[in-house]
Design goal:
- The structure is a single chain.
- Helix 5 (about 145-155) packs parallel to helix 6 and helix 6 runs parallel beside helix 7 (about 205-210).
- The chain has one domain (about 10-255): Phosphatidylinositol (PI) phosphodiesterase (TIM Barrel), CATH 3.20.20.190.
- Strands 1, 2, 3, 4, 5, 6, 7, 8 and 9 form a nine-stranded mixed beta sheet that branches.
- The chain has nine helices and nine strands.
- About 35% of the residues lie in helices and about 15% in strands.
- The relative contact order is 0.14.
- The protein is α/β, with parallel strands linked by helices and about 260 residues long.
- It is globular and about 50 Å long.
Length: about 260
């Protein structure tokens, strides 16, 4: 039976990139307009150490530029465009800086900032920027797959929510191992919560992780089966690529 009394937040993974490229201001604006509770965005460093919002290492995947992003300065990135799903740039979509996203959307919608790394300097670059928006920290969380990066930004931004991202399971892993790894990797990161994939969730996993003082969120909650799973288990927040479906699902539960 669904625990409909449990409210959950719906986070738009890389915004709502329907008709616009992911991880761009238009994608975030669309998510805001549709009613998402937050937007998830990926942060990488340029060659000159500027935090920018882009998922991939290689710029060839979705832009008019080429090569790895870490070999480009911010000025060089400004000369390129982000392409739409059809591979054409109808409008001049740009790779935004994290500062631009914070200035545009901070306080208007929740922000889930994934620190991609792997540079040890990443937390310092992001933290120095976040301190300019200290008054918005209640609406911001930092995430990463790397416990060391997450622990670092937690030290630099005491009071900021930090959540560990847990990767898809290897075939040999049982749910007991997943729960054990999730707990101890989250401890290494000193994280508030761990984000598990819906296939890694069960009543036992959730209760075990929570009994260690760590909350459970979810990522890649796409499709009705995943949505039912997170609702039944009382997961308070999850990321989705199917924003409208998730919002419609929540509305049906509330009526």
């Amino acid at each position: 039976m669904l625990r409909t009394s449990v409210a959950f937040e719906v986070i738009a993974h890389r915004g709502a990139p329907v008709g616009v490229p992911e991880n761009t201001v238009p994608a975030f604006q669309r998510a805001l307009g549709l009613g998402a509770d937050g937007i998830e965005l990926d942060v990488r460093l340029t060659r000159d150490g500027v935090p920018v919002v882009f998922h991939y290492f290689y710029l060839d995947e979705g832009t008019t530029l080429s090569g790895p992003i870490f070999e480009h300065t911010l000025d060089q990135l400004r000369r390129g465009e982000v392409l739409g799903s059809g591979g054409e740039s109808v409008e001049p979509y740009r790779i935004p800086t994290l500062a631009e996203v914070l200035e545009t959307f901070g306080g208007r919608i929740g922000l889930e900032i994934e620190i991609k790394g792997p540079e040890p300097e990443s937390p310092e670059a992001v933290a120095s920027l976040l301190h300019r928006f200290r008054h918005l920290w209640e609406t911001i969380e930092a995430t990463s797959y790397e416990p060391a990066l997450l622990a670092d930004i937690g030290e630099r931004c005491p009071g900021l929510a930090t959540d560990l991202l847990f990767p898809r399971s290897e075939d040999w892993m049982g749910l007991d191992v997943i729960a054990y790894l999730a707990i101890h990797r989250a401890r290494l990161a000193r994280a508030r919560a761990v984000h598990l994939h819906p296939t890694q969730l069960s009543p036992e996993v959730v209760s075990t992780v929570r009994s260690s003082g760590i909350e459970v969120h979810s990522w890649d909650a796409n499709g009705m089966e995943s949505l039912r799973t997170v609702a039944e288990l009382g997961i308070p927040k999850f990321d989705t690529d199917e924003l409208q479906q998730a919002l419609d699902f929540r509305q049906r539960l509330e009526t």
